[in-house]
C-alpha cells in the first residue's frame, strides 16, 4: 500500500478562494472588508516567515492587513496597551500576536487579554471552552484546518478511533476536542503515556503534534490509517521534517500529509475564515465572552 497524499496547499487555495468570494460579496453590498492585526515581536526568522505568509493570505482574500512589528525589547505592559487599543477599535476584527513571544512576556496573559470576539487564533479559554461544550465559534486554526483535511479524503469520521500525540493548549487539546465533535473515539497521548506504540498501532487516525522529529515510527501505523503530521522540525542540515517517519508511514497508511505542504497552509487559510467570521459575529450583535 502506498498512501495518497493530502495536499494541504491545494485545499488551502480553495479555502482562500472561497473566503475571497465572500469578502468580494461584502464589498459589492456596500459593506467593508474584514481587518486583521498581526503583532510580531522581534525578528525570529521562523516567526517572520509565518507572519509574511499570513499577510500574503490577507492580500489573496481581500482582508485588510494591519502590521505591528515591534522590537523584542517591547515590555509586557506596552504589548498589553496595544492589545487594549486594538480590542477597542471597531475597525479591527481579528488580533493575532505571533508566538513565541520573548521570554519576559507571559504568553498566557497576552492570549487572555485579546477579546474573545477578536481571537482569530482560537486560543482564548472562552473559545476553547465553547468547543469543549460543542458550541464552537472561533475555532483553533490548526485543529479546525486538520478536520477540513480529513473531510477532504471523503472518509466518514464518525466512530473512528483517533490518537492525538501531543497535548499543547494551542494544538493537541483543541485537536482532541475537534475529533470528539466529529464523532471519533479519541485518545490523547503525551510524555507520560506508557505505551505510545500500542496506542498508535490501533488508531484509524493518527494526528502527530508533539514537535519531535520522527517520534512516530512508520511501522507503528495501522494499515489503511489516516496520518496527519502537524509537527514541523528543522534539522541540522536545514531540511524540514515532521513528527512522523514519512516514507515508512506512507507504505502503510491510506492517506498522509506531507511536511511541509500539509497542515501549515490550512492553518493560514482557516485564520482568514476566522477573521471574516469574527466580523460577521460582531455584526450580528454577538460579543463572545459576554453571552
Automatic annotation (TrEMBL):
<dbReference type="GO" id="GO:0009086">
    <property type="term" value="P:methionine biosynthetic process"/>
</dbReference>
<dbReference type="InterPro" id="IPR000672">
    <property type="entry name" value="THF_DH/CycHdrlase"/>
</dbReference>
<dbReference type="InterPro" id="IPR046346">
    <property type="entry name" value="Aminoacid_DH-like_N_sf"/>
</dbReference>
<comment type="similarity">
    <text>Belongs to the tetrahydrofolate dehydrogenase/cyclohydrolase family.</text>
</comment>
<comment type="function">
    <text>Catalyzes the oxidation of 5,10-methylenetetrahydrofolate to 5,10-methenyltetrahydrofolate and then the hydrolysis of 5,10-methenyltetrahydrofolate to 10-formyltetrahydrofolate.</text>
</comment>
<dbReference type="GO" id="GO:0004488">
    <property type="term" value="F:methylenetetrahydrofolate dehydrogenase (NADP+) activity"/>
</dbReference>
<keyword id="KW-0658">Purine biosynthesis</keyword>
<dbReference type="GO" id="GO:0005829">
    <property type="term" value="C:cytosol"/>
</dbReference>
<feature type="domain" description="Tetrahydrofolate dehydrogenase/cyclohydrolase catalytic">
    <location>
        <begin position="6"/>
        <end position="121"/>
    </location>
</feature>
<dbReference type="InterPro" id="IPR020631">
    <property type="entry name" value="THF_DH/CycHdrlase_NAD-bd_dom"/>
</dbReference>
<keyword id="KW-0560">Oxidoreductase</keyword>
<dbReference type="InterPro" id="IPR020867">
    <property type="entry name" value="THF_DH/CycHdrlase_CS"/>
</dbReference>
<comment type="subunit">
    <text>Homodimer.</text>
</comment>
<dbReference type="GO" id="GO:0004477">
    <property type="term" value="F:methenyltetrahydrofolate cyclohydrolase activity"/>
</dbReference>
<keyword id="KW-0028">Amino-acid biosynthesis</keyword>
<keyword id="KW-0511">Multifunctional enzyme</keyword>
<protein>
    <recommendedName>
        <fullName>Bifunctional protein FolD</fullName>
        <ecNumber>1.5.1.5</ecNumber>
        <ecNumber>3.5.4.9</ecNumber>
    </recommendedName>
</protein>
<dbReference type="Pfam" id="PF02882">
    <property type="entry name" value="THF_DHG_CYH_C"/>
</dbReference>
<feature type="binding site">
    <location>
        <position position="232"/>
    </location>
    <ligand>
        <name>NADP(+)</name>
    </ligand>
</feature>
<feature type="binding site">
    <location>
        <begin position="166"/>
        <end position="168"/>
    </location>
    <ligand>
        <name>NADP(+)</name>
    </ligand>
</feature>
<dbReference type="InterPro" id="IPR036291">
    <property type="entry name" value="NAD(P)-bd_dom_sf"/>
</dbReference>
<comment type="pathway">
    <text>One-carbon metabolism; tetrahydrofolate interconversion.</text>
</comment>
<feature type="domain" description="Tetrahydrofolate dehydrogenase/cyclohydrolase NAD(P)-binding">
    <location>
        <begin position="140"/>
        <end position="280"/>
    </location>
</feature>
<keyword id="KW-0368">Histidine biosynthesis</keyword>
<dbReference type="GO" id="GO:0006164">
    <property type="term" value="P:purine nucleotide biosynthetic process"/>
</dbReference>
<dbReference type="GO" id="GO:0035999">
    <property type="term" value="P:tetrahydrofolate interconversion"/>
</dbReference>
<keyword id="KW-0521">NADP</keyword>
<dbReference type="Pfam" id="PF00763">
    <property type="entry name" value="THF_DHG_CYH"/>
</dbReference>
<keyword id="KW-0378">Hydrolase</keyword>
<dbReference type="GO" id="GO:0000105">
    <property type="term" value="P:L-histidine biosynthetic process"/>
</dbReference>
<keyword id="KW-0486">Methionine biosynthesis</keyword>
<dbReference type="InterPro" id="IPR020630">
    <property type="entry name" value="THF_DH/CycHdrlase_cat_dom"/>
</dbReference>
<keyword id="KW-0554">One-carbon metabolism</keyword>
Amino acid at each position: 500500500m502506498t498512501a495518497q497524499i493530502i495536499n494541504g496547499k491545494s485545499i488551502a487555495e480553495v479555502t482562500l478562494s472561497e473566503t475571497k468570494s465572500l469578502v468580494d460579496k461584502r464589498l459589492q453590498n456596500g459593506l467593508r472588508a474584514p481587518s486583521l492585526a498581526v503583532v510580531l515581536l522581534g525578528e525570529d526568522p521562523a516567526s517572520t516567515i509565518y507572519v509574511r505568509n499570513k499577510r500574503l493570505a490577507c492580500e489573496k482574500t481581500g482582508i485588510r492587513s494591519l502590521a505591528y512589528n515591534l522590537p523584542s525589547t517591547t515590555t509586557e505592559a506596552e504589548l498589553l496597551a496595544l492589545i487594549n487599543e486594538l480590542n477597542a477599535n471597531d475597525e479591527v476584527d481579528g488580533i493575532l500576536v505571533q508566538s513565541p513571544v520573548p521570554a519576559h512576556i507571559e504568553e498566557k496573559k497576552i492570549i487572555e487579554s485579546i477579546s474573545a470576539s477578536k481571537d482569530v487564533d482560537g486560543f482564548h479559554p472562552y473559545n476553547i471552552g465553547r468547543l469543549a461544550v460543542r458550541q464552537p465559534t472561533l475555532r483553533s486554526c490548526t485543529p479546525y484546518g486538520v478536520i477540513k483535511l480529513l473531510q477532504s479524503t471523503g472518509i466518514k469520521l464518525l466512530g473512528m478511533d483517533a490518537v492525538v500525540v501531543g497535548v499543547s493548549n494551542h494544538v493537541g487539546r483543541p485537536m482532541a476536542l475537534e475529533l470528539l465533535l466529529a464523532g471519533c473515539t479519541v485518545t490523547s497521548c503525551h510524555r507520560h503515556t506508557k505505551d505510545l506504540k500500542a496506542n498508535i498501532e490501533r488508531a484509524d487516525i493518527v494526528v502527530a503534534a508533539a514537535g519531535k522529529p520522527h517520534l512516530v515510527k512508520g511501522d507503528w501505523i495501522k494499515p489503511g490509517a489516516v496520518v496527519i503530521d502537524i509537527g514541523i522540525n528543522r534539522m541540522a542540515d536545514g531540511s524540514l521534517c515532521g513528527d512522523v517517519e514519512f516514507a515508512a508511514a506512507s507504505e502503510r497508511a491510506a492517506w498522509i500529509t506531507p511536511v511541509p505542504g500539509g497542515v501549515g497552509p490550512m492553518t493560514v487559510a482557516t485564520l482568514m475564515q476566522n477573521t471574516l467570521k469574527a466580523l460577521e459575529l460582531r455584526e450580528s450583535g454577538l460579543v463572545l465572552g459576554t453571552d
